[in-house]
Amino acid sequence: MKQELETLHGKALQELGDVQDTKRLGDWRVTYLGKKSELTTLSKQMGQLDAESRPAYGQMLNELRQALEGAFATTKATIEEAEQNARLASETIDITLPGRAIEVGAVHPISEVVREIEDVFLGMGFSIVDGPEVETDHYNFEMLNLPKDHPARDMQDTFYITEELLLRTHTSPMQVRTMERMHPHVPIKVLVPGRVYRRDEDDATHSHAFTQIEGLVVDKGIRMSDLKGVLEAFAKALFGEHQRVRLRPSYFPFTEPSAEVDLVCVHCQGSGCRVCKETGWIEILGSGMVHPRVLDMAGYDSEIYSGFAFGMGPERIAMLKYGITDIRQLYQNDLRLLRQFAGV
């Protein structure tokens, strides 16, 4: 049996000398030191020996196991060191290579337009406020003169979460929230930019999620002429001193009277073109005097106070300002488009 153990010892060391990587080293360990190895099989044969031979045979088995485990540990350390050195050599960084140029980002055109609009109205004494995008039916509709059975609700196809919770369809709920918060103080002059959601089919001019900017002024003696003056100052600041605005009668449940606001076409300067359908004007926002019922429900006596409100879409203004023809281009993150605004 001693000869058998010596033969196994020599064979194991010879194969271990040919091992060059950790995978083959693992295979060698299973073959010669594992539970199903030849060494384990020989250990189980001790029971067949007589009592006098067992101690000597057991000692030889232990010495062989210790010798193989020691050889395994030495080889493992050598292989791991070699592999680590090879890995470090392959990962060496050449610090003399030139660095990669870092591209300078650009403010998104919608964000840029929102900032410009905010700057204009901040200069006129407005404050910027924010509101929740998940709104209640109470503030999104009822407090804006749109009770549950009002037919005008059909104008805004709504994303409902529950019967009383929804994704806001406009930033107008902040009209009421602001008046409730500031009551009974005046004047109120706020601008509310934010995301709104409607179940529109996405096309060149519509999106199911878009940005809206709401404006509200409440005080004693506010008139329609004040609304036109503010919007004309805004148009001149954003599109140039040559700009003019016109108001056309319209309908919104929360303003009375209501008006659509047009700008002189920025493409043809009023002479008529395909974009403005030969009219010389382009619609830019909706507006009107705050409905007396809205004032009363918010706590302001409509016999004493009056106000105006307006709402615009920065996407629409960005399209006019930068000559973008498809609103979807503003949401596709196409770097070919966005890089054009790096120097704007």
TrEMBL record:
It is found in: Cytoplasm. Belongs to the class-II aminoacyl-tRNA synthetase family. Phe-tRNA synthetase alpha subunit type 1 subfamily. Tetramer of two alpha and two beta subunits. Binds 2 magnesium ions per tetramer. Its EC number is 6.1.1.20. Its cofactor is Mg(2+). Mg(2+) binds at E256. It comes from Alicyclobacillus fastidiosus. The keyword Transferase does not apply. This is Phenylalanine--tRNA ligase alpha subunit. Gene3D superfamilies: Bira Bifunctional Protein, Domain 2. It catalyses: tRNA(Phe) + L-phenylalanine + ATP = L-phenylalanyl-tRNA(Phe) + AMP + diphosphate + H(+). The gene is pheS. Transmembrane segments: none annotated. Keywords: Aminoacyl-tRNA synthetase, ATP-binding, Cytoplasm, Ligase, Magnesium, Metal-binding, Nucleotide-binding, Protein biosynthesis. NCBIfam families: pheS (TIGR00468). Residues 111-340 form the Aminoacyl-transfer RNA synthetases class-II family profile domain. The keyword Protein biosynthesis applies. InterPro entries: aa-tRNA-synth_II, aa-tRNA-synth_II/BPL/LPL, Phe-tRNA-synth_IIc_asu, Phe-tRNA_ligase_II_N, Phe_tRNA_ligase_alpha1_bac, Phenylalanyl-tRNA_Synthase, tRNA-bd_arm. GO terms for molecular function: phenylalanine-tRNA ligase activity. It holds the Pfam family Phe_tRNA-synt_N.
